[in-house]
Write a structure and sequence with these properties.
The protein is α/β, with parallel strands linked by helices and about 210 residues long. About 40% of the residues lie in helices and about 20% in strands. The chain has nine helices and eight strands. The protein has a five-stranded parallel beta sheet, covered by helices on one side. Strands 6-7-8 form a three-stranded antiparallel beta sheet. The protein is globular, with a radius of gyration of 18 Å. The termini are far apart.
Amino acid sequence: GSSDADFEKLKAILGKVDVPFICLDVANGYSEAFVRCVRRTREAFPEHIIMAGNVVTGEMVEELLLSGADVVKVGIGPGSVCTTRSTAGVGFPQLSAVIECADAAHGLGGHIVADGGCKNPGDIAKSFGAGADFVMLGGMMAGYDESGGDLVEIDGKKMKRFYGMSSRTAMDKHAGGVAEYRASEGKEVLVEYRGPVAPLQQQIAGGLGPA
């Protein structure tokens, strides 16, 4: 989040826990308030690595980097549990966004993480080929032993809960509910339980090798 309450919570956490990274995560980073939040966070924590997003255009990547971010999260709408495109009518083709944003970030010595849309190892290879420095794999990693989410059994079939961070579930859990002035932009789903993640890791490594 980017509110004053979020900033105070961040300061309280970092006062007790020694971690080198800060992630400023909102569904849509196109607001002056979010830019101010990034700038204020950089001033308060000059030694930390700050990741901020999400955005999908080169101009906004540059704005966030110049405001103090080190890594910009790129992607609005492509995530498997993201509903921003249907809720707010906002979105951008992910591969096009990565190409444009990577070029802008690298020109300023910054980095981007491609956030959303990867369904198989080939999508990861495309992201790196388009210029991404990092790739987020929420949907691909959901359902495994090592992932978050409660394990439940429905009609004899094991499932795991998976939800987006802009969903009502996430906001009820982390922010005391959905604020009156906004709507949730994510959803909660049940994905089939898949066991240990090691076979998927091997598949990803095998796909990236030839690429």
